[in-house]
Amino acid sequence: MAKRVEQNERAKRDYVFFLEQTEGLDEKSTNKVLAAIRKFEVSTGYKPFSKFHIEQAARFKRDLNRAKNPRTGKLLSHATVDSTLAVVRKFIIWLAGRQGYRSKFTYSDAEYFKNNRKNARIAHAQRDVPHPSMEAAFHAFQAMPNATEIERRDKALFAFLMLTGARIGAVASLKLKHVNLRECHVRQDAREVATKNAKDIDTWFFPVNSEYLDCFTDWLNHLNADKLFGPEDALFPKPLVEVKDGQGFANLGVSREGYSSTAQLNRIIRTAFANVQMPEYTPHSFRKTLFVYGTEVCDGLEEIKAWSRNLGHENLATSYNSYLPMSRERQREVLKRLRR
User: What is the pTM of this model?
Assistant: First the structure.
């Protein structure tokens, strides 16, 4: 059973309240903060925060650099280590101003949680995001089975991601009422859809292979006409499972409820690529696939701006920096080509 220090628990509870009220963080974000602070507690042997010493910060950095990802078994990435240190450093700065801690340590003590310069540079270096080409994505899509209702749903999910580039968290929370098939439009209403930073996003289907639209249209018609789904029902619902006596679980098609997390939807897409011996690309990688494709087919700045906004980016620079970072070598190649 995990250890709990009452004094620490009160401090963490107050800090979460502070982040919620002053920075507007949601539960998902504050849980990440608590997870980072918990790692620090483990490193100190669950000592009270009031017993802080700078050697604890040094030990914490050593522990993080030796720690492994429980899922992959590999060492934590430089980015994970750097972000964890930053979270704990911010917490220590906040704690230094609290009654009962001011005499224990100072604001400058938080500086001991800074990453070293070399690892910080590695952590913040721009990296190419692996993504499938348009051809690779279509190949994986065509190979997906389409016999059962669940298989039809999975294939429609793949099609929808290629049509919209929507983030998988938003897709998991979409309902039928958010899609206007006649207008090829999806309204990601932040009051009901889990959009990034709770931002409303209007997305019109991208001009991609028509088979994607045919597949998604067939799924939507199935839900409306055959299943008699209503506006409040999930666009990509969970399976309907029944327990049969002595026979285990029986899959009865789809329910009307959506998934509460994105794990299963991510697994569907990764499996689609794995089944055709490709890297297990994630749904989020489709966003780069679509943006790179957009830079090839768009004619002029206005078109690429509309394409970028369709991905939910108000600023065109966000799309370029996120999905098309330019290395020094690429900069040189482009300028050489222009000179010719």
Answer: 0.73
